[in-house]
Each structure stands twice: as structure tokens, then as C-alpha cells.
Amino acid sequence: MLLSIPGGAWADRRTNRRGAMIVADIGRFAAVVSLPLAYAFGALTMAHLYVAAFAVGSLTVLFRVCNHHVYASVVAAERYVDGNALLSGSRSVAALAGPSTGGALVQALSAPFALLMDALTYLVSAVCLGRIRSQEAPPASRGEGGLAGGLRWVTAHRTPALLLAGVATLSLCQTLTTTLFVLYGTTELSLSPGAIGAVFAVFGLGGLAGAYAAPRVVRRIGIGPAIVTGFLCFSLPLLLVPLADGPAAWVIAALAAAYLGAGCGVAVLDISANSYLIAVIPPTLRSRVMGVVQTANFGVRPIGAVLAGTLGTALGLRTTLWIGTAGAVLSVLWVLASRLHRVRELPELPAHQARAEDVERALWQAVRDHGPPLRTSVPYDEPRGMVCAGESHRIECMFDSSEERLKALRFLRNVQVRHLDQTDRWIADEERRAAEQARRRPPPPPPDWALERGKRALPVLVHTAQCWEPFFMQAITREQALEALTRGGVPPCARCEPDKALGVLD
Predict the structure, then answer these.
(1) Tens digits of per-residue pLDDT, 437-446?
(2) Which helix (H) or strand (E) holds 473?
(3) Are 266 and 279 within 8 A, CB to CB?
């Protein structure tokens, strides 16, 4: 929570976020694998556990804030919803299979050595990321808003700000409900631990169903109505939790229905809202804004937990659950106030912003490949403008004046002309190679029969292979030659005598 905004600012200024994600995976692997190693040598301490947990959490923040840039560079804008659906489905599968798999590994190997399998998953993630090939957006300059740039962008745009307020309210109320659920289930509903575990498993099944349904919901009703649908499908089923009472079968059925619907709703909300935010946030602010979103989403959860304990003690568990679920239902009012429910398609960048981004991306690539177009007196450790990472130093391109922008664009044109000239040379070489191969290739054999045509493409003579001339004659079959000589009235060639060869005179 504390590192999301600084981590987002750091990620926005990087040129290779995918590499940072790989480093984060390797770091998390090292932190987790250190625990069973320390246990094996009898050196595991609580301090070691705290340091490893902090390292894994910090590197997870780094991974998440870089993930949005890499995702946008790999997935086309029109496929954002489908891509997020796949990610949400994979998380739901992990939530379903993870606890049972972890329990089996702990029972078979003991807890410290079961962590080895968890550590290996980070290596698998690093290998998969290493196989991705993408061109990420150019890095942001240090003058583009700093740490507070993401927060300023959110507060300056009404729709994302109200969407974030709705998400934070929903997260607060959901945390309040979840904190009390186990105590509520065991004390007031007399549920066994197995029954409570089964209810939580149903939530994962709902997430899978929501991941499957979300793209279809968005295509049917639009991105804005899908977000509203996600809010309502997440919150309304939770009203069954404080309503649950009576026979054990009814209670378990009500709770299962509540968490199945909530799991489906949160998946639809997560997929549609993330797709909308990735599409609407400027590339140079993407990680900082998503850092603000993560801070708001996770930052209210400790508050929700404290409120759950305070209100549960003062008002009772069921009353507090009514407050939490009612607040979750009302959180959709933030989104309705933003008029996001009227948005049907994912927003696109304005034309001038899209053109500027294309120019900056092309220029950044040219500078990275060919060096900077101009030098300035600004030290490399205090870059301004567009910063590009070289092999062992930082390259800077200054855009503080119109003259310098023109120099940079002319440099880009020269690079592109040079590439065009090289492509023209490749085309000429290929044409020359094709011509040489055609000269070496033996000519095709002449046809057995040919029809010579004169003016207006009228048939003049019938020939055999002896008189074949491809520029004046048309290859025909034996049957066509007979037809031309007998019924067509076309005379035979006196030199090659096709009528004798065909036996027409006999």
C-alpha cells in the first residue's frame, strides 16, 4: 500500500518494465527459497520471516505497477477486456486450487519445504515474461508530475475519480463483511470449518464464471453498464449473508448463493474497470494512476477491519453485517453520479495525443538505435525531456523549444529515409536475384498444338510444336486443334502441316 505510488512513479520513468518484472520475480524467488534453506540449517528466525515477507510484498508492488505498461504493449486496445478476462480466470483458478494444493504439500513435505514449490512459481513467471516480445511506451520525463502526478490526474478527471471512490467504498464494506464472516458463521450460524471453507471455495467458482461472462457482458451492454453490473452483482448477493437463518441446509445454500454471485460480480467489475482505466489513462501516467488506485483499494481495508471489530462489539455481528452489505450496495451511486453507465465503448486517446505518442515512440526508438540527435549541457544524472536508456549511460533528447523539437523530428526523418533507402536496396537485390534465377531456369517445353492469332485476336493458322512462338501463339489441346481445322475453318500451317499430324486429310 505504501509503495504503490512511489513504485508507480519509478515504473513510469523506466524504459524496460518487462525486465523490472523479471527482476521482481527472481527477487521473490530468492526471498521465498531462503526460508526452507534457513530452516534446513537451523537458522530460521522470526526476523528472517519478517524480512522475507517485506521483500516479497515490496517486489509484488513493483511487479504490479510495471504490469500495466507491459499489458498495454502486448494486448491491442480492442482486446483489453478479453485479456483481462484471461488474467482474472487464472487468478480464480489459483484461488481455487492454491489452498488445497498448499495443504497437501504441507502435509507431505512440511511447511518450510512446501514453500519451495511456491518459489518455483516465480521462476516460471520470469521465464514466461522473458519470452514476451513487445515495444513498450516511451518513459515519462522527470518533469511530468512527479509522485503526485497520478493523484492530480485522478482528481482532475471526474469519471475516473468517482469510479475510484466507488471501488474504495465497495472495498471498505466488503472488508467489513469478510472480517466478521468466520466469527458470524461459527457463533451465530453454528457452521463447521468445512462448511465455511466450502463457501469460500464457491466464491472462487463464481470468479471463474464471471471471467467467462465478462467479455460477453461488455459486448452485449457496453463497458460502462458492465461496470455498474459488476458493482450490483458483487454487492446485492451479499445481502443473503445477514439474512441467513434457520435450518443448516438453508443457511449453507444462502451463503453459497451469496458468495457465488459475489464472486461472479467482482470478476465482471475487476475486468471491465481495469480495461476502462488502462484505456483512459495516458501512457506516461499509467503506473502512477494505477498506484493511486491500488492505494485506495487496499488502503481502506485496515479501516474496514477496525470498523468491523468496533461495530461488531457495539451493535452485534448481524447488525454490522447489514451495515456492511448495505454500504456495498450503495457504493454504486458513485458510479451512477459519474455517468459512466452511459459509456458503451472503451475510450480512445484524442487524435492529437495519439499522434504525439506515435511520434515520441518512433523518435525514442530512433534515438535508442542511432544515438541522440543533439547534445546539451544538462548532466546525464539530471535528465529532462525524453530519456532513453543506452548500454551503459543515459541518453537525453531536449524538447524545451520549437527549434529543438524540429531538430529532433528532422533527425527522425533522416533515420526513416535511411531505413527506406536500405529497404529499397534489399528490394533491388531481391529483384536481381529473381531475374538471375529466371535466366538460369530452362524454358518450358513448347505445346504440342498452337493457334496463331492475327488482328483483333482472330485465329489465323493452326500449328504444331515446330512453329511455336509464345508471343504470337496460344497453346491449345489436340481436341481444340481438330475443332479449329474442321469446324472453325482455320487453315493449317503449310510449314509444320498440323492437318497431316492430326489425320484430317485422311
Answers:
(1) 777 777 777 7
(2) strand 473-476
(3) no
Give the span between the Cα atoms of 450 and 107, in whole angstroms. Answer: 86
Task: In whole angstroms, give the CA distance from residue 253 to residue 256.
Answer: 5
Q: Find, among 123, 179, 164, the residue nearest to 311 by Cα.
A: 179
Question: Is residue 255 within 8 Å of 188, Cβ to Cβ?
Answer: no
Of the candidates 26, 202, 44, the one whose C-alpha atom is nearest the C-alpha of residue 122 is 26
Q: What is the pLDDT of residues 45-65, one digit of tens each?
A: 899 999 999 999 889 988 988
Asked if 3 contacts 61 with a C-beta cutoff of 8 angstroms, the reply is yes
d(CA 452, CA 358): 58
Measured in whole angstroms, the distance separating CA 284 from the mean position of its chain's CA atoms is: 17
C-alpha angle with apex 378: 377 to 380, nearest 5 degrees? Answer: 120
| Closest to 259 measured CA to CA, from 330, 187, 315, 185 | 185
DSSP alpha helices (H): ranges in 281-395?
286-315, 317-330, 332-337, 351-370
Please name every residue paired with 396 in a beta bridge, in sequence order, or none if there are none.
Answer: 387
Residue with cell 461488531: 312
How would you classify residue 110: left for phi > 0, otherwise alpha for psi between -120 and 50, otherwise beta?
left
Read off the C-alpha cell for 232: 450490483
Pairing of β 449-453 and β 394-397:
unpaired
φ, ψ for residue 82, nearest 5 deg: -65, -40
139, three cell numbers:
518513459
What is the Cα–Cα distance from 262 to 425, expressed in whole angstroms? 61
Q: How many whole angstroms separate alpha carbon 187 and alpha carbon 179?
A: 14
CA distance to 168, 452, 492, per residue, from 456 (Å): 82, 12, 19
pLDDT at 393: 31
Spatial separation of the C-alpha atoms in residues 476 and 204, rounded to whole Å: 72
> How far is residue 271's CA from residue 278's CA, in Å, rounded to a whole number?
11
Cell of 334: 458513485
Q: Is the dihedral of CA 348, 352, 353, 354 positive or negative?
A: positive
For 148-213, the three-class secondary structure string (H helix, E strand, C coil) is HHHHHHHHHCHHHHHHHHHHHHHHHHHHHHHHHHHHHHHHCCCCCHHHHHHHHHHHHHHHHHHHHH
Among residues 295, 296, 326, 289, the alpha carbon closest in space to that of 311 is found at: 326
Q: What percent of the chain has pLDDT over 70?
A: 83
Rounded (10°) angle between helices 248-280 and 223-235: 150
